[in-house]
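Many introductory courses stop at the sequence. We go one step further.
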Amino acid sequence: MARVFVYGTLKKGQPNYKHMINTTKGIAKYQGRGRTVEKYPLVIAGKYNIPYMLNIPGTGHHIAGEIYTVDDQMLRFLDEFEGCPDMYQRTTMRIEVVEWEGKRGTAEVRPASSGVMECFVYNTSTYQPEWVQLPYHDNYDSSGTHGLSYVLRENRD
């Protein structure tokens, strides 16, 4: 099992969460909430209002999200879903655990006593230069006050 930190449309209550609970795509177990140890810019960009965490450490905010353990099948699905490695790149980041719901498990799954763990995160180094000028968010919500609702793939032209 691998740990994955999601910060965008795959979180609970967001447009693509359905994929996280679709067992035909693999297994994803919600473990808790966290935030990036380092600051990153989280922007909403493109004509489909897609959230992107730009791989510019030290700029932006500590990004809030959810921590999951996923099996190999789900990890392969997420790589494909996120357009890895072209649109997003799967990298390892340090995530501070804010709230842990994970059941008693192996030390591999539990957070360290420091409350920080390494997780895979889908961020991007392949962004448009003008995205750096967009507003930075710390917690993505497709229905947020930003007014930039995510456009589902099935509704795109």
